[in-house]
Amino acid sequence: xxxxxxxxxxxxxxxxxxxxxxxxxxxxxxxxxxxxxxxxxxxxxxxxxxxxxxxxxxxxxxxxxxxxxxxxxxxxxxxxxxxxxxxxxxxxxxxxxxxxxxxxxxxxxxxxxxxxxxxxxxxxxxxxxxxxxxxxxxxxxxxxxxxxxxxxxxxxxxxxxxxxxxxxxxxxxxxxxxxxxxxxxxxxxxxxxxxxxxxxxxxxxxxxxxxxxxxxxxxxxxxxxxxxxxxxxxxxxxxxxxxxxxxxxxxxxxxxxxxxxxxxxxxxxxxxxxxxxxxxxxxxxxxxxxxxxxxxxxxxxxxxxxxxxxxxxxxxxxxxxxxxxxxxxxxxxxxxxxxxxxxxxxxxxxxxxxxxxxxxxxxxxxxxxxxxxxxxxxxxxxxxxxxxxxxxxxxxxxxxxxxxxxxxxxxxxxxxxxxxxxxxxxxxxxxxxxxxxxxxxxxxxxxxxxxxxxxxxxxxxxxxxxxxxxxxxxxxxxxxxxxxxxxxxxxxxxxxxxxxxxxxxxxxxxxxxxxxxxxxxxxxxxxxxxxxxxxxxxxxxxxxxxxxxxxxxxxxxxxxxxxxxxxxxxxxxxxxxxxxxxxxxxxxxxxxxxxxxxxxxxxxxxxxxxxxxxxxxxxxxxxxxxxxxxxxxxxxxxxxxxxxxxxxxxxxxxxxxxxxxxxxxxxxxxxxxxxxxxxxxxxxxxxxxxxxxxxxxxxxxxxxxxxxxxxxxxxxxxxxxxxxxxxxxxxxxxxxxxxxxxxxxxxxxxxxxxxxxxxxxxxxxxxxxxxxxxxxxxxxxxxxxxxxxxxxxxxxxxxxxxxxxxxxxxxxxxxxxxxxxxxxxxxxxxxxxxxxxxxxxxxxxxxxxxxxxxxxxxxxxxxxxxxxxxxxxxxxxxxxxxxxxxxxxxxxxxxxxxxxxxxxxxxxxxxxxxxxxxxxxxxxxxxxxxxxxxxxxxxxxxxxxxxxxxxxxxxxxxxxxxxxxxxxxxxxxxxxxxxxxxxxxxxxxxx
Length: 991
What we know:
Blueprint: E1 26-27, E2 45-51, E3 61-66, E4 77-78, E5 80-83, E6 86-92, E7 99-104, E8 110-111, E9 118-120, E10 123-128, E11 131-133, E12 148-155, E13 165-170, E14 181-182, E15 184-187, E16 190-198, E17 202-208, E18 213-215, E19 222-225, E20 227-232, E21 235-238, E22 258-265, E23 268-274, E24 282-290, E25 297-301, E26 305-308, E27 316-325, E28 337-340, E29 363-366, H1 368-371, H2 402-407, H3 409-415, E30 419-422, E31 426-428, E32 439-445, H4 456-465, E33 469-475, E34 478-480, E35 492-493, E36 532-533, E37 548-552, E38 558-560, E39 599-601, H5 607-622, E40 627-631, H6 638-657, H7 659-663, E41 666-669, H8 703-717, E42 747-748, H9 751-755, H10 760-770, E43 781-782, H11 802-814, E44 818-822, E45 858-863, E46 866-871, H12 873-877, H13 881-895, H14 897-901, E47 903-905, E48 909-910, E49 914-921, E50 924-932, E51 936-939, E52 944-948, E53 954-957, E54 961-964, E55 972-977
Parallel strand pairs: 2-10, 12-20, 29-30, 29-44, 30-33, 33-40, 35-36, 40-41, 41-42, 43-44
Antiparallel strand pairs: 1-18, 2-6, 3-4, 3-7, 5-6, 7-8, 7-9, 10-11, 12-16, 13-14, 13-17, 15-16, 17-18, 17-19, 20-21, 22-23, 23-26, 24-25, 24-27, 27-28, 31-32, 34-39, 37-38, 45-46, 47-49, 48-51, 49-50, 50-55, 51-54, 52-53, 52-55
Protein name: Alpha-amylase
Domain Fibronectin type-III: 253-344
Pfam families: Alpha-amylase, CBM_25, fn3
């Protein structure tokens, strides 16, 4: 969730110095000693080397066309053996200065660069696993008299280069011809080359990736000597040990974990501890529990928090923790931590996540407090009820609840949605906290959302009973302005004098704030008597406690120091909360400073904070939620997600429900990049796709230091050196197994498509352009507008018109990704209205208005997208044109697996929004041709019988070509190979 910027002056975060020793990768010219460019005579030939080890083809053919010329006859020219794992072919280009090329095995299996062909120049070129470089991989050592030799090892662990060349000059001799000679892969992350120096004993050297990216030691070249030397991250080690030699065994054990604490709630105990240290790395912890009737239990844990549930009532338990490294070395046991359980919790038994592939489940997004009021007794207006204008509309901010949502699950199912995204459920505390993003007690569900028989657990269970998932919005980045109960709450100055008694409630030691219960002295449910003190608290760190600031409030009242929480006041402990305002939204400080005055920014690199949040969200995992939507994910360093929070989620789901359920526990992050480019203003650290990847190198053991190292390294690498993926793309017409080995564990909201949905073709083009930089874009969550913004960062709910809505929906439901709809968009609810104006205007006038009036009456669903019966106002709602449209889209998508999980391609297709998709797996092979709004022609497709899921039209393809007439705006055609036929009835748009 993004919030309106705070208007007070903010302290800019001091610029930081990048860690020394990072590798300099410089584009452009190499070292000063580079040889002249190739002569004109060389420019008319190309010697192409092709790497064969991956393909393992018995023979390889080069099929090519010189620029401006014709292609060779298929399969092309057979390539000749060059050296181990390489073949080559030299071709005469005539007057051309380059060629387009593809490769094949002579029997119909092709490598055409994912449909784009290879664009090659002249001279010596290599093609290895899709990467084009300029070097001779079979070049030998320089000829000449035998003499001194230098063996050079070069590390690419930092750069990630897939080809490495050594460009060098022995002392007193000439430089090799750029780009130099190819180095051979030696071991993981290292390349090696031995060169003859003749009588010389030293050499100057630079390195490059064969594609114009050089490491020339910042222009100074590298000074090397005869013998063995290593070059890693700019550092030369003379007479080094062979980095690829067998490593000495690791025999050093980690240190013992410290500060182990155990806290019991009902029959659960949460255990936390400080991380252990090791000379390599701690890989896991072993928690040993004694007590109760089950004897000694040992559990492996990957994080520094462990939630032990299902224990015996009123029983004492003792815990110790050991740390282990990758070699199996085990630390001594920690000091014991003890806790005694209480009585069994009264809550219902935990649910079990459905655990199916999340791409099958279109998402309906609700602000729970604004969707449907099932219980008026839990309605609360808060301190801004009158000021906002909500009181005049009899519209308290907390109005909708779980009881209302449970009662209208059939409405959501009748629309065809099988997943519901709900706003944060934890107890909030602020002046205007109905949305849930001001978390105060992360371990407690907000009572303003619950009712007897309609707890959060009841909602989860009810949804699962209908085959529907619950995705919970979660916040790791910040708490309320009053801190987080159980972790830290600020000491605030207050005085009940003649000016401030209206604001500061009288203390009631026996009362605990829960947002719902009315405190008897004040008559408020938003009681604040526990938040302030006139006397300076022990250990206070806020300067000038209680002294007048010299300023006045809007009412003319005296303002005092330490009266209002802020990051720079010293009211928050710096080890738990950050101490600055964001100055640059695309700078490092956006991940380590406050983004709004009422969102106290956690120091998420602190173990105590991590343990607090992991323990809290383990509770909701245990309840059986099906996934987490991660709020403000970009404001936490990727290293912290990848080291701590994402592994903890996976570990807890695996521990509770098994590996299969963990694999499909859906985590999707909000990385608010509100720009229309592929990379957010050129900053990789602030781009959505960046968070879908694991780290590419090791950083400092300390999380805060690691965050800065990662930030500097990835910013230096820039947008051109980020990892790429083909997981979303077909290989020709073929589906291929996706490679998720570098997946972080967090999928993303497709912010780029969201920003461009003012026009569906723009959204389509922008989405395609970004997909190679996402680990797997078939999991992208795609929406037009939300509770924060409309397209192009509009502050209003989408008002593009019904036809445009229908076109956007047709694209979302058939293109890659998971279609998501913000509540009410099915009837263009509040179109054109300001989405959020805080308490400065009534909620009823905004995009977050109460929706329940449109749901009055009864509705039952017989299946997804099918209404069994309906009466009252909801029957009218269900009769709207976009409702009919989305119902049928959901039924079509549910019936065609390619539209749910398929990879896609636009190769061989003409048409503005036209593509093909295929999914193959588990005995299913689903192939579909899609065009939205406009006409399309598909060439090179499999022959066979195609049936349109929209009209039932049947086309037989015998020559690999199928043409489709334009269906009209908002309409589409989905021709499915051996398809199921027409799905559903013709409607206002699908006809």
